[in-house]
Hints:
The protein is α+β, with helices and mostly antiparallel strands. The protein has 15 helices and 24 strands. Helix 7 runs antiparallel to helix 8 (254-273), helix 7 runs parallel beside helix 9 and helix 8 (254-273) packs across helix 11 (307-318). It holds the Pfam family Glycos_transf_2. Residues 10-134 form the Glycosyltransferase 2-like domain.
Amino acid sequence: MNSCPSSTVxxxxxxxxxxxxxxxAVSSALAQGPVxxxxxxxxxxxxxxTGRVLDALAAAHPRLKVVHRAQNSxxxxxxxxxxxxxxxxxYVMFLDSDDVLPPGAAQALVTAAEQYRxxxxxxxxxxxxxxxxxDVPWVPGLYTAGEVIEQPVDRPALVRDTxxxxxxxxxxxxxxxxxxxxxxxxxxxxxxxxARVLAAAPRIAVVGDLVYVWHVRRAAARVSISLDRGxxxxxxxxxxxxxxxxxxxxxAAPELGRASKVKFLEYDxxxxxxxxxxxxxYRAAWWTLTRAGLRCLTEGDIAAAGAQGRWIARLLRxxxxxxxxxxRLARFASAPPSLLPPYATGAxxxxxxxxxxxxxxxxxxxxxxxxxxxxxxVEPAGRFSVRIxxxxxxxxxxxxxxxTARLSFLPRDGGEPAxxxxxxLAATPAGGGWTAELPLRLGGLAVTGRRRGLxxxxxxxxxxxxRCADGSSVQAAPRPxxxxxxxxxxxxxxYGVLLAQPYRTASxxxxxxxxxxxxxxxxxxxxxxxxxxxxxxxxxRPG
Length: 543
């Protein structure tokens, strides 16, 4: 990596009532080294001592400049704009008060921007879920390290990266195109800012380095605005920001506008739907807002989306009120999708959502087996096994010859799955599905996790892998039933004791926490304590 000849970056840090964490964020920016000319910290009229913390840091670090706002802006856009106004370096980066920049992030981005004369440089970002410390890559597979994207229209999928914080920007480029964040209480301001950047058609340089660690505290007493999905106003704000972003992108290039709308159907809509509040009033309001939000989409936009987003959009358009099987729809919005019975057909024999809402599920007959939204239910069958029920899906699995099933455990921290033993499927007496009793060796799974370097508490997502006689296969997220959930304490010859906590994820699928030995048990207790006691307000994000 080349060294930068001068201090060329301003890091803008925004903070509101974050006295306990803002110091770590600022320190991570100052620690980038001489490539950072200055850190501009904007205190958005905090009332908790954040301003005093920043002033004390500024007294010790000449490169830190503090801007104190007299009135709270209500969002993240205005303080970021204030930070840009105070910046003096040729390049600017953004950092939120509860996140950190990894060592070398600014250097890597500047080097790439200058080498390729790119107004924008982007690097890898991870969502670090706290207190567990699990890192989830942001938009994996979207970028290739070392590539240079000449213009966004060459890669319409770039609209899926709506973050502003994993990038470096040429300030001259931003000023030339009058690119700023929306002011005031504008949630999902990143959507609009990023759309304005892409619409200006910059060359984009990509680095493989990790350049941003985004801390996610879902169990906080005051979660971020973007994670507060129990407030229907949050969804309204997201829909409005999406509309504005799609308009900006569409005016610049039709391909980008359509890609933005498809992203809304394939990403934004499912993540909210699968975590939908059960309150009928909330659901009715959400349904009305969403149907109105789909009016800007053409049939061509909907047809360009994958089956999950396409079918959900058409269901929303077809019904003025939430359907009776709303929970079934929420389950279908999960990842991977799962379509529970009953399976209805229309007059022409085509697959439809239900008899009450006969929206055609176009493409069902030709969809690859690996993409089918198959449904699996799982319940306890003994101390060391579980029983699954696999539902057929419009005859597709029967035609493929559903043959065997096995459990697959995906480590939530990433990595290869741990596979159970395959077991032959048995057709149910009533037809329309299969059952199997699958071994569940929790002690062996804990050993596998330890061998892979998992220390303390282990977290696994559970999947069922189905293989068919024609060579095809499909993976499903099982839905727990019966008394499968609940903590279990198991004796272990290796660890003395093994704590197992099967649980249901936000999307209704089965997951598992394992705590082998005293070390693991302590980690599980700490995890539960941290989830209960975490309390703060991180800045809003589009995730």
